[in-house]
Amino acid sequence: MDFVSKMTVDLRNTLLALTVLLAVKPVVCDHSRRLELWDSGKKGTSGGNGDLVTDLPGQPNVAFRHYAGYVTVNEAHGRALFYWFYEASTRADEKPLVLWLNGGPGCSSVGYGATQEIGPFIVDTHGNGLKHNPYSWNTKANMLFLESPIGVGFSYSNTTSDYNNLGDDFTAKDAYIFLNNWFLKFPSYRKRTFYIAGESYAGKYVPELAELIYDMNKDPNSLQIDLQGILLGNPETSDAEDWRGLVDYAWSHAVISDETHKIIRESCDFEGNDTWSNNNCTEGVDEVLKQYKEIDIYSIYTSVCIGNSAGSDDRSLPLMILMKRTSKTKMIPRIMGGYDPCLDEYAKAFYNRPDVQKALHVSDGHQLKNWSICNMKIFEEWSDSKPSVLPIYKKLITAGLRIWVYSGDTDGRVPVLSTRYSLSSLGLPITKAWRPWYHQKEPLVQVSGWFQEYEGLMFATFRGAGHAVPCFKPSNSLAFFSAFLLGEAPPSAR
Predict the structure, then answer these.
(1) Is 320 exposed, middle or buried (0-12, 13-18, 19+ CB in 10 A)?
(2) Which of 339, 364, 379 is the last residue of a domain?
């Protein structure tokens, strides 16, 4: 019996109890907006109005509302997840709701997605304040960012043993309960068209959560979430295809030698159960990782940022690599998805400010939380990772969900080849052949990338973009996101 089947009964009982408990709380009416907001009267689970952000330091003036705070997912354990929700900048009542997730595992969707990539506010240099992002995705949708699982960003549990259970399944279950309780805070969004988007290791989070929602929707007693599709950027998808693509991409982009590539191709069985027990294989992969330490694996043509390089003999770019032992002979390398110490320090400075934490309802401004953009302990101790989510793809395609996948083509971490290998293994019929797509705001209407349509899936590339595509191509990304929401292919003519 799979994870979803085993947990359905427990989740149903838990959510029914929560629904009954929260439904009897008094309703607070905000007459200026004609929205009913639930107020539980408890810290960390106040109504949406109590989570309204009103005095965020350095915030540009905006016409939309945004909310931040905690949603309890397990009251007995004292387990709560932090969210930041931005209403659409115009006509919020008419636009869909999109949940954004970053990966790692262990990295913050607020630190990356919300305030470096696609949110309306970008953290300024040195964490001094915020600047307006004209390409924010909340111009097209209501955007919800979740720090998940516990231990990421501001999310926490008061039960120490919870941290020993972290993995894909735990994360999906808590995210699902979060959504149920979040909809109780914001009841006007309960029946809103809903999408899930994310990048990197969220390539596993997103389809796993989508599968759970799809299965739970079959139960008439469960909250019916109107999930219509998923959007995935440079996603980890299948361990075997991800590794094969990483190696081939490094070779085809002259990062490694012909000899190293030949050794890996001949000695590494990425589909096997003992891949890393082969010494020739591990030595070959070690050489790939060694060479990638010399450049930025997340954007191979970008100049590297080397911390304290003037006084150091180590001129290599920091690359977070974990060799996790699963048996006496098997070592699995894992590379942090999204780690960039030179880019992230100002986000850390901003979110650890007392006035910022108070404004976001995570502390009183005196007893501060220790926020970091990635939790290395979670990354190192991640115990449950599905080797492939391709079976979930097949299930969601059969269910008729919209699935779009995109790749920045200068990313070496989850390169375009990895994604192409994974999608090719699905064997989907091609409905519209490979062709370029364009973005009208490009100078002289340049090619933004290429795309191909399959039966049940769209795949596109972003030319010249690295791992976190919106950081490199913000205007193009927004146009692509808009096309996804409309279910229309991006422009394929100049």
Answers:
(1) middle
(2) 339
Which position among 136, 215, 467, 477 bears the catalytic label?
467
Of the three residues 339, 354, 382, the one that is the final residue of a domain is 339
Alpha-carbon gap, residue 482 to 439, rounded angstroms: 12
| Residues 10, 14, 16, 21, Cα dihedral to 10° | 170
pTM confidence score: 0.87
CATH number for the domain harbouring residue 96 = 3.40.50.1820
Q: How far apart are CA 415 and CA 417, in angstroms?
A: 5
411 is known as an active-site residue: yes
Helix orientation angle between 168-185 and 202-216, rounded to the nearest 10 degrees: 60
- Do residues 354 and 434 both lie within one domain? yes
Asked about 467 being catalytic, the answer comes back as yes
What size, in residues, is the chain? 494
CA end-to-end span of the chain: 51
The active-site residue, picked from 157, 200, 238, 448, is 200
Catalytic residue among 51, 411, 418, 439: 411
Catalytic residue list contains 200: yes
Helix (H) or strand (E) holding 266: helix 258-267
Mind giving me the DSSP string for 77-123?
TTEEEEEEEE--SS-GGGS-EEEEE--TTTB-TIIIIIIIISSSEEE
* pLDDT tens for each residue of 47-92: 467 899 999 999 999 999 999 999 999 999 999 999 999 999 999 9
Do residue 225 and residue 286 come from a single domain? no
Q: What angle do CA 468, 473, 475 make, to 5 degrees?
A: 130
Residue type for 466, please? G
